[in-house]
Amino acid sequence: MITFLPLTLCSLLMTSFIDNLRDEWFSNVRGDVLSGLVVALALIPEAIAFSIIAGVDPKVGLYASFCIAVVISFVLSLIHI
User: Fold this and answer.
1) 20 to 30 A from 27, CA-CA: which of 1, 2, 41, 53?
2) Environment class of residue 44 by beta-carbon count within 10 Å: exposed (0-12), middle (13-18) or buried (19+)?
3) Residues 48/58, Cβ–Cβ less than 8 Å
């Protein structure tokens, strides 16, 4: 037998989830943007240098480092939800 939560309980859970999401993700936008810029400025020369050492095109190193940074940012931020 399938039971459904009442509509008020579902809306209450959804509202608290949205409030929690807003508090967790958008509470420090300035700090998040600044940290993203710092990581990007540190990552670009590092990715170019390691790709030259590895003997591949520097564009490959930049693409790979960008993809890894995006994946890690989403995966690690989901742990806190």
Assistant:
1) 41
2) middle
3) yes
Rounded to 5°, the CA angle 15-22-42 comes to 155
Q: Nearest-CA neighbor of 32 among 68, 66, 73?
A: 73
- List the alpha helices (DSSP H) in the chain: 7-25, 29-54, 58-78
Chain centroid, CA 72 distance in Å: 6
**What does the alpha-carbon distance between residue 34 and residue 71 come to, in Å, rounded to a whole number?**
19
Distance, C-alpha 38 to centroid of its chain: 15
Q: For residue range 33-78, what is the model confidence (pLDDT) as tens digits?
A: 898 899 889 888 999 999 999 999 999 999 998 898 888 878 886 6
DSSP state of 80: T
Residue keyed to tokens 């540190």: 42
